[in-house]
Structures
1.
Amino acid sequence: MVFVKAENVSVDYPLMGYKRRKRLKRMKRGLVDAGRRSTSLRALDGVSFELTEGQRLGIVGLNGAGKTTLLRAIAGVIEPIEGRVQRLGRMITMFNIGLGTEADASGLENLRIYGLMQGLTLREIDEISEQVVEFSELGDHIHLPMRMYSAGMRMRLAIAVATSIRPEILLMDEWIGTGDQRFIKKVRKRIAEYVADAGIVVLASHNRKIIRTQCNLGLVLDAGVPQYFGPVDDALKAFDAVIAKKDAELGGAIGADDLDEDDSDIEDGASDAEGEKTHVHP
Amino acid sequence: MSIHDPEPVALTPQVRLGRSHKYSSGEGRLSGAISDFHEGLLRWRAWLYLAWMEIMRAKRRAWLGAVWYPLTLGVTVWVVGPLFGMMRGYDLSVYVPYFAVGMAAYQIATSFLTGSGRAFIGGADLITNSALPYSFFLFRFAANQVILSLLYLPVILTPFVILQPDLSPNWLGLMWGIVCFYAVLIALSFSLAVFFTRFRDVIMLLKASTRFMFLVTPIIWFVDDLTVEGGEELSGRNLIRAMFVDANPFYHVIELVRAPALGEPMAEHTAIYVGAMFLVAVIGFFTIFTLFRRRIVYWL
């Protein structure tokens, strides 16, 4: 029985080494909690939901709303200061593509690193590696150091590896990134298949289309406070209200209508040309 | 494209993750720490491989990479050793092996202690973005250090092979000594790893003090230089001896391997001293790991 359960989850980030009391006083009240012993920033405030098999939750919110923090709390990276997270099931987190990769190691070695970190044995990794290389279309490039890969190539490998392991719980943080048009299409298909196959999905994204199509539940966050939890279409409407409110506060620059669905097919940074060398300095 | 896409997608059924792990954020600190440790141990393949990768990383873009560490040690042993030995009028076939083992043990020990700060800080990206247990990073660090220290072995052996000193190593004692040597260093570096992540200044302090400690620890000099003159024991130097030898943790940690390697009896206090140090380190580590494990991510 796979489940993810959040009960009244609140997360505070301590501000390490932040001692400027005067500046704190000038800040808007409620932004930071300046206690006697430590100063902290509330990132999540009382989030509750329960997910079971087949439920796919999309988290939406403006920048800094707490989407990533919530994912991290579910993953167990950070412990909530109040409330509780419980989950049961084999979980994979995809927060940062190319995480933990060795720039100077070959693609194949990185494949092994990734698999090992997810808890696979070398034999299991051998089983998937051929298929991973094939999907990534890297060919003989797989033997070259990752340093030589373009951003698109790195993404292709990362997605190929990540989606070759099937979890029961999948946590994703806005990761459908770069690549050429043709590969993006292939990746879309793969991810759809992957997401559909996972028992529970929690996906944070700014892409409304992805949220609408991939998720059946939605959670709206605003400055860490949950605004709505329910069917995804209603959640997106609630998110529009949040945007409208923000617009009114800041003098109304962008209407919510303009945001809807205009991110037609390819999102952020898809223009990255394949084959173009991107040097990483680790 | 939607999840209700009518077009059947060929599923590529692949490996499923092996274990289903129940996670509850509310679980007690102690049980949380224990399961963290357990989870970390289960991933031994990964941290071993990553530790190896880390050593290879230094090698990949360089000619020799990590081999430089033992190489510089070798140069030190064979340049400073004979030079200093001649100056002091030591028998070189006694002094150079003594110096080589002491120097290597000291370098390994300081590398463990000062390097421990990197265990979590170096894994910051992974810690904040994946659900790997904290102990995973400790094990990766320890494995890396143990592998690095093994590279010193050929250098340590050179004086024994070349000078053919007239001594008979206590092999059983040496085996135990090596086990205890690593055990105490791993225990100490684990607790320091947590501590250093929070208090970054302390690691600077430790790094700065290693050169000083090297000079005041019997590595390039013998304990007898301090306490014996002209064949007679100097009783007036008991306090100085107590300070720099008997109370010096580095001395005892080095003695663990140096004494049996040279076939000498271990100082009587060494076993007790190291045993106590190990115990304190283990209890200290589990205490701070239990209490502060969840804070580590905020300290990064």
2.
Amino acid sequence: MKVARWQEVVALVILLALLPGCYGRRELEELSLVSLLGVDKGQSERLLVTVVIAVPRKARPSPGGAGGEGGGTEATVVLSAEANDILGALSKIDRISARHVTTMHTQVVVIGEELARDNVAPLVDVFSRQLEFRHNTLVAVAKGKAVDFLKKVRSIEEPEPSSYLVKLLINIHREQGTVPLVTVHEFLIGYSTLESDPWAPYLGLAAPALEGEEVKREQAGPEKAEDGRTDVEGKEQGKDTTRPSVAVLGSAVFRKVGDSQKMVGTLNSEETMATSMLKGDFIRGHVHVAIPGDPQETGVLMFHHFSGTPKVRVEGNRVSVQFKIRLTASLVETSTRRIDVSPELQRGLVYTAEDQLERLLASTFEKLKSTGADVIDLGMTVHRSFRTWPEWQAFNWPERFRDVNATFDVKVHIFTSGFTFRPPEPR
Amino acid sequence: MTPRLSGSKGTRARAAKAGPSAYELDVIKLGHVDSRQLTLMILYLLATKIFLMFPSFVTLRAGTAAWISVLISASIAAFGLWGWLLWTRSTGNLGIIPSLRLTLGRVLGDIAGLFLAVYFILTTSLSVRTFSGGAIIGLLQEFPLEILIGIVIVAAMYAAWLGLEAVGRAATFFFPLIVVSILLVALGAYRLFDIRHLYPLLGLGTGVVLKEGLTHTGLFASLSAVAVLKSYVREPRDLGRSSFKGLCLATVFMVASVIVVASMFPYPENTRQVIPLGIVARAVYLGRFLQRIEALFTFTWFFASAVHASVSYMMTLVLLSQLMNTHTYRPIVPAVASLTFGIAANPGSILEAGRLLDSVHVTAGNIEVALGWLLFLIGKLGNVSDKAARVSRQLDRLKEDPSYSEDYTRAKSVDLQRRESDTETPNQRTQVNAETGEGPKGINEGNRGGGPSN
């Protein structure tokens, strides 16, 4: 059958009308983009959900450009609502927002500590079920309430708080290793598997600036918003709003208790670094080590390369593990004025660093065992010794983890002590 | 049953005496596919399910050893394919329905042909439904499901309407795009990849894995397509090699999809995912400016599903047209499209559609894999290869006639003219009988609508 040219044209016009994929579209200017999402335990209802909504037209750097208490920065609006579930709360927020609130661009979800210690279950389902929530969103736990934390997140370097928070976490994770970088995907895997437990960065608010640090704002006058209303939220003349507001405290660890997955402890920055090493995802960082022969003074060892592998042995119900940790480092600073770089000093430094790291790793591992949270994914290695899943399940790893016998084989290679042999001497 | 011919009662009576013509014996003309196209068409038929729930379902049943169970199924399916190829070879260059009739007799042969057609209709409909449901979950939340099903069916049907060669070319054209985008997704999500998630190696246990591998051989059931397509392969000698290549490629894709999903979502987390590869694509993040690449994946998904549906439609249309002796499949296209739309729109949810599709694979699929060997053994006992050879020789002889035409309309009119003139030269029928050693009844029973396409 021959198709006439006009029939082809008609078919083409109909297809062009039907197929551009604009069905159910939403224009960008009709959307409120949630950049940070906070979830707390509610008072009247199950959850208190807080959203930090980016206001792109205001997201340009301005002198002293951060806002203040209670309202986020100029580039954001902070709104909260209580409901039994996240989408319920978001729909309540939707009712007071001029635009449709969408979480498609949420960068970080911040869990309030109280909710984290109770049960994080209400949070995780929507992230694996709903189109607007994404697996690559970062997860963090806020000391205290997430709503208070989100209201105060600010930095003059980044006009948008989510951008600040993401960069802060990535930077510290990569450069210091003292905070984990955990996405919803990784959190979910820890949440729902037998052989690992989730963890997340533990964040707080930085201490207020000291008096001497106060910076007076030159342009503290309230700006007029586009609709003529005065945007006074959070601006207090004379207050230091240039100081970044977030303090990275370390990490929060979770495990299943009864039917709930809950936060069972925290690790400080050093312990978090050690945990990253045990987990095998440490990138770089530094430690302060005592100078051999002068224990009052310290040197800073910067780690450059890292390799960490656990070697597991399972005998009956007993699990022994040897963590093989290899690091390269350089001596980048000393506080003493009385050292001369020599092979002996290098060996002494290596010995001290290895000993110090070993003790740190051992104490961190003991702490993890005491909380029962296998955030280092040791179970992932242990279950390789089992042939079938039923055997592995019967082994009851969450209980066995507490009895794991661990040894640490740490080797540090200091390959440089910097540009000089000796510190400068005053003459 | 003699095909209904136009003309007066006297003409039809004379035609019945004249014996079978090339028009009656020949298969519907669809053009030819080369070996590469055949390989890819089999690959699409077997492996497109990786974009649906296949990785989740197989992992749910076999645990971390799901990939081993797929390998077991593939090995059994390869054995099944061997059976189909042996039977195909024994029936010479006859079409699938004439071959079935020759092997099983008219009634059972038609029932077997109908079974295959129903299998293809069900798998096409439910795959389209699952694909559309996945697209709505993962991309177009507010898009009406029925319209999306309709779009996929129209796109696939249009290719099928254009013919086998168009479907073959579409399969070849989209294949590199699909492979590249799958690789991009898999490589883009490399950070989530952890090989340790594949342990314990034997999953839910050796017995469970073996049983799963055995009972889900039906996942490879569309292999019967080789018997449908054998009449349209440019180089019939390559049929076996091309179809095994298709099976091997499909196995690689299916095993790889299960491994990728299992290594990114450890068991049992991976059993929760409705469209696991879609979720993997959503999890890809390569920095601020390279994310959301599921948009790319969705196109791939659509191409693969549409090509799969069009190949599957082609199989259905060939089977139905041969069953009905219509010598053309186009009048059936709207009916098959409506039928698949109705079946696709019927399940209440994507999960229901996925489960139904799985049931079709486990029940009808397993029967289909085993059917090749059954047909071959029955054919061996019934000496089908000799009968088929005689019919083929007869058709070849008829094709040598200068009036022979591959064009359906012309062939039909030539046939009528020949029959008219045969009343004046009735010795042709005698010649045919002398050649085949059989009367017209036997030939008609075994070969109506069959024969080579060349």
